[in-house]
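Please annotate this fold before class:
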Amino acid sequence: MASTFDLETYISRYPPNSETHLQRLLFLAHQFHHHPPSNDSTDNNISATAFQMAVSQMKSSGNHRRYTDEFAEGESSTSTTSPSACPESSSIPTTPNRARSNSHADRIIQHYQKYDSQFVAESKASMASQLEVLEGRLGTAQNHINKEAIRNALLALGEFLRVRGELREGWRRAVRSREYCVNGVQHWQTCQLLIEISIDLREWNNARETISRAEHTVLGDSNDPLFTHKLRAANALVCLAEGKYSESAKLFCATSLELTNQFSNILSAEDIALYGSLLGLAGLDRENLHSLVIDGPFKARLELVPSLRDALRHYSLAEYGACISILQSSVKNDIMLDIHLHSHVNTILDMIRDRCIAQYFSPYSSVSLEKMGGVFGQTVEDMESIVAKLIQSGGVEGVSLGEGARINAIDKTLTVFSTSCVERKARRRARVNAAKMGIEFVRNAEGMIMRVACLENGLACGSLGRNKRRDREAAGRPDRMVMDIPDESDSEFSNDAMEVEVHDHPMANPNDFD
């Protein structure tokens, strides 16, 4: 875990009352509780500070639902919004990426904060009264059949329920408002809210569907000049969650530099820089990485992530050991604390390491595993295991160790045949196969000519094997009118030329030894 982490600076990137602000605070509190720093006493209070800030936000917004979820007081699995709330929302957790449990061991917040039952009771009462007012406005708008008023009332309900922690019910109200949109601006407003709630819920299918709908129905009609780039950033986040790292990297790199904190309800400018550069290292080949990340417009964002900027510079200079060292010592600490990246850390870092190994080996035909292990900070045994997996999988996306790569377990070396060697063996194989086909054709042609000549001279052509001839002679019935043509199974008739070895028979082809 990071030894120097500025919680206030990090969390200030996001709006104070946003859902992502609260989720990241709780995530950091749990992470630092399970992995406390060992060498800096000033960081030992990060969990306490994060829980304090989270509780303060939940109390200021009246989010008793998330509050009871954290304390696991038995009320976290029931919804108390209103009689009209959908019963399905009671069984859907609103805290993503962490299973709720009633065991005392999982009530981490109780080590830092005391449960405030008075706040829960007051928040429920306040929520019920406000919800009644909002529902009344919706009913009045529906009685007057005023589409604009209905849409505004549904959006207000969606925003209110979202702030109070009822994300699922807020999403349902926002979806209903889509039926009352009459222009592109209204569609974009609704789509943006739906995208944000879907990402907060980790409902990636709903987010992708809403993004696709917005691209086809709102494009060109929005009054937000960054509308397209917000959709790209959201789509990139969905691709990241689905493990499509190269596609996600391309989408992050395609976002405009003008998109900084305008989409901070979901992503900050630092997040876009971190995700785009890290996923570019993992999923893009060298050419695309240079054109999109290192030398493209995205290069300006790298100033926000100095560690990754240095890692990219070492990678560009083929200094793969230094690149891996920075990723393991510095960057890994940052991404372990990121709410969207932490579950992909090992996969992404392994992909970057494998890509570096493949590119490190590409100029050589044989390399010592011991020297490779020294470059990448691995033992010989670990290096052999990594290379074996690379050979078995065919390499990472866009780069491989080469055709015919083999490990010499005795000498502890990695060897691969050059392209010219592989082509020469393929030509030799083709020539030998052609020679064998020619021998077979000549034999078949001679056999047919012999049979035709026998028929023209009144001789019966047959095929008697050695055993049949022996039986006929033993019975005293030799047939002088029959000319025995040996069967192909007879050993006397086996053509030595057909036993040509593909690789080393000297009579296969004289041109084979060029």
Remarks:
- Residues 73-95, 97-105, 478-514 have pLDDT under 50 and may be disordered.
- The chain has 20 helices and five strands.
